[in-house]
Design goal:
heterodimer, A: 548 residues, mainly alpha, Cyclin A, domain 1, 23 helices, B: 247 residues, alpha/beta, Rossmann fold, 7 helices, 29% helix, 19% strand, globular, GTPase activity (chain B), P-loop_NTPase (chain B), GTP binding (chain B)
């Protein structure tokens, strides 16, 4: 599933993003004993084989939402609408005695800190649940209020128990817990849904995959839950792919946007988001007349042409948010301004950060119904993460795009090394690397892969540290090109160009991407430190040493 | 029916023009007879081919469709340097795009091969009141007749036109350019542009084609901009595949 995992780089780049502020006031630390104490009983309770006799097996950890909606368990979790109404008699209804044996067997193989899943911020205190899991749910409610930093720190959580403006703000597709998420992405750790495992329905392979997923999620949670996230550990885990539910938080940490120290998160996010919103407000305050016409025109003609095949990007709300992000970035970075391709680069962030707040497939979602608060927060997070990403590849977009030219010639030199036959053939048919790889560099291969695949690639790029999008990308491009070596060597100029412009990657999935990344890692290991390799013909300027 | 012994030659064509005027859409219409609203912007350049059948010969266009944004302009010389023909496109609903087109024409006249055939193309005719396509059978020149009406029509409501036919036509005449108004969306006049270019390529030019480098070395191709290697030598392209066709 996470094909690249085995080749995880051990020698990570410099750790400049690590937050080492282990301040005393760690809310987390002071509370953690309590947390642990309260979570223990959950575990016992949660794993108790149910006694009812239905055919379904409850196989995994639940967010509170699942427990409160047991009637609907096999589908996605419904968000609670009302704490009191939600005191549903639970559990038993799903869990079959006849499957108890396998259930137990399954339980015994899975990771052992599931109880943490139950520890949710957003459970209202007054929730009472009866039945097998009742105690767990109510425990979770108590724990969440006292044990989570965000809950306690946020204005709404302080008193004990969340107040949800659910009645007025119920939006289709919006997670009920959105307010907690807005405040602290750390709350996503407690909203993970694991579909129930049913031995009658699921094959053993599927169950294995589900268990692998749970186990992997728990590894991430262990890292992400600590009061100061160990970014080295996070990088080495994330290199092989980040589970969808944890990606928003993990990306923000990896890019250095979200502080590793959990005590600083709420305040930092508030400040950063305010800064973005103020910038945007100022930039648009005088209407179009007060704006940089060249930049604004270019952005506004590109926005409707951004991922036109994905419904999410056809919606007005998406377009208005993205153009604002791009415009604010452009006027704050006058050396480059807006350059086509940057519109592509913002979309993985938009998709990933939006997905934290909604249920279902983000690519078909219409964000128009979301509260402005959520859109502001997603926009601001996209803006800052895009900024972080572009900081590392700024010379790709300044005048004459020296970064891209350098990468293109590095790619050519690299391919000469790793596949001299292909390099020779391309030379013979007079194909120049700039003719096909300019776009690979300018759009980070986003025109070559689906956004979903790009998102998976970025897990790894971000795990590579600052050089991921500049240096590691080069090796990915090399691995990608030589993958088609056999085909390319049979083609003339025209065929090569046509082929490279629309490579057959439509069917590519996570495994293919994982393999590609592993191959790139291999090339990087072989060539990264040989500073002479890229200077074969004495003409290449490169910045390999700078990154080491 | 048209194939057989009819001589076939390759012609390099480059598209230039401001962003979002419809360069890629014109090519897509010409090559695939297709149109897509909101296509992704071209990055760098795209390569396509298409044959054009003339009564006495077949021309195979090898097309470089370049990116329009100013930031990518430094790539353009690589693509026009060896081109035998160029299609300079503007959006006739956007005044500034003709200025940009004039800039490209001047650059081509200065830097490209001396014999390059240039067509000035005003695209998005479907957004004007002339969009009915009644004159679709007319060649480029006959549009100059319609130009007299241009000024009046411009005032009509619902007409997004900002550049009159007369204005663009007179500029094209001055500079010795082919001139067309097209709609990639409806297909109006698109085939005609390419046919006119094919007809305008001097036969002598085609006959000299033989091997790499023999085609268009005129113009003293300037030094290379990128990567220390030679410019885009399109001359050799297609020699091995004369009968190949993109369609």
């Amino acid at each position: 599933m996470w094909g690249g995992g085995s080749k995880k780089p051990q020698s990570g780049p410099a750790q400049e993003m690590v937050q080492v502020d282990r301040s005393e006031s760690s809310f987390w630390r002071s509370r953690s004993p309590q947390s642990n104490a309260t979570s223990t009983p959950h575990r016992d309770g949660a794993y108790k084989p149910p006694t009812d006799s239905q055919t379904k097996v409850v196989g995994a950890s639940y967010s509170y939402a699942d427990m409160l909606n047991f009637e609907n368990t096999p589908s996605r979790p419904k968000t609670p609408t009302h704490s009191k109404h939600k005191s549903t008699p639970s559990t038993g209804s799903h869990s079959p005695t006849n499957a108890a044996a396998s259930y137990n067997a399954f339980m015994s193989q899975t990771d052992d800190d599931w109880g943490l899943d139950l520890n949710d911020t957003s459970i209202p205190k007054e929730t009472t649940v009866t039945g097998g899991l009742g105690s767990i749910a109510s425990m979770a409610g108590v724990t969440s209020i006292e044990g989570r930093p965000s809950g306690a720190k946020g204005s709404k959580g302080a008193g004990g128990g969340y107040e949800y403006p659910l009645a007025k703000k119920r939006t289709k597709g919006l997670k009920a817990q959105f307010e907690g998420l807005v405040r602290d992405p750390g709350n996503s750790l407690h909203m993970i849904y694991h579909p129930p495992i049913n031995t009658d329905v699921h094959s053993s392979a599927e169950i294995e995959a589900m268990n692998a997923r749970i186990s992997r999620i728990n590894k991430f949670k262990t890292v992400l839950q600590s009061s100061t996230v160990d970014l080295t550990k996070l990088r080495s885990l994330a290199w092989g792919g980040i589970p969808d539910e944890l990606r928003p938080m993990a990306w923000q940490l990896l890019l250095g946007y979200l502080p590793a120290n959990c005590d600083r998160r709420v305040a930092t996010l508030e400040r950063k988001r305010r800064e973005y919103l103020d910038s945007a407000k100022q930039a648009f305050s005088r209407g179009e007349a007060g704006m940089d016409q060249t930049i604004w025109h270019q952005i506004s003609i590109d926005i409707p042409r951004t991922n036109p095949h994905i419904p999410l990007y056809g919606h007005n709300t998406t377009q208005r948010c993205l153009e604002k992000i791009l415009y604010v970035w452009a006027i704050r970075h006058p050396a480059s301004g807006y350059v086509q391709g940057i519109n592509d680069l913002v979309t993985p962030f938009w998709q990933v950060f939006l997905s934290a707040y909604i249920e279902g497939d983000v690519e078909t979602f219409d964000p128009g119904s979301l509260p402005p608060e959520v859109l502001d927060v997603v926009s601001a997070d996209c803006f800052w993460c895009l900024t972080k990403l572009l900081d590392g590849i700024q010379d790709n977009y300044i005048h004459s795009q020296p970064g891209i030219q350098r990468q293109v010639s590095q790619l050519r030199d690299l391919v000469r090394r790793i596949d001299s036959g292909l390099a020779k053939h391309l030379n013979d048919v007079q194909v120049q690397f700039i003719q096909f790889s300019f776009r690979w560099m300018n759009c980070m291969l986003m025109r070559e892969f689906s956004v979903k695949n790009v998102i998976r690639m970025w897990d790894t790029y971000m795990s590579e540290g600052n050089s991921g999008f500049s240096e590691f990308h080069l090796y990915v491009c090399a691995a990608f090109l030589v993958k088609w070596s056999a085909e390319l060597k049979k083609m003339d100029f025209q065929e090569v160009m046509m082929f490279l412009q629309s490579l057959p990657t439509k069917e590519w999935g996570e495994k293919d991407i994982g393999l590609l990344l592993s191959e790139a890692f291999m090339w990087q290991s072989l060539y990264r430190n040989s500073s002479a390799h890229l200077r074969d013909d004495g003409t290449t300027v490169h910045n390999e040493e700078l990154n080491l | 029916m048209a194939d057989g012994p009819k001589p076939s030659s390759s012609v390099k064509l480059v598209l230039l023009g401001e962003a979002a005027v419809g360069k890629s859409s014109l090519v897509l219409r010409f090559v695939n007879d297709d149109f897509q609203e909101n296509r992704e912007p071209t990055i760098g350049a795209a390569f396509l081919t298409q044959k054009c059948n003339l009564p006495n010969r077949t021309i195979k266009f090898e097309i470089w469709d370049t990116a329009g944004q100013e930031r990518f302009a430094s790539l353009a010389p690589m693509y026009y340097r060896n081109a035998q023909s160029a299609l300079v496109v503007y959006d006739l609903t956007k005044a500034s795009s003709l200025a940009k087109a004039k800039h490209w024409v001047a650059e081509l006249q200065r830097q490209a091969s001396p014999g390059i055939v240039i067509a000035l193309v005003g695209n998005k005719l479907d957004l004007t009141n002339q969009s009915t396509g009644l004159e679709s059978s007319m060649g480029g020149l006959s549009l100059s007749a319609a130009a007299n009406d241009g000024d009046e029509e411009e005032e009509e409501e619902g007409d997004a036109r900002q550049i009159t036919t007369a204005e663009a036509k007179s500029y094209a005449d001055e500079e010795g350019l082919l001139f067309f108004e097209t709609s990639a969306k409806t297909g109006h006049n698109v085939q005609e542009v390419f046919t006119a270019i094919a007809n305008a390529i001097p036969e002598s030019t085609l006959k000299t084609r033989g091997g790499p480098g023999s085609g268009r070395t005129g113009g003293g191709a300037a030094g290379d901009t990128f990567g220390g290697s030679g410019g885009v030598n399109l001359s050799a392209v297609g020699e091995t595949n004369k009968d190949g066709c993109a369609c």
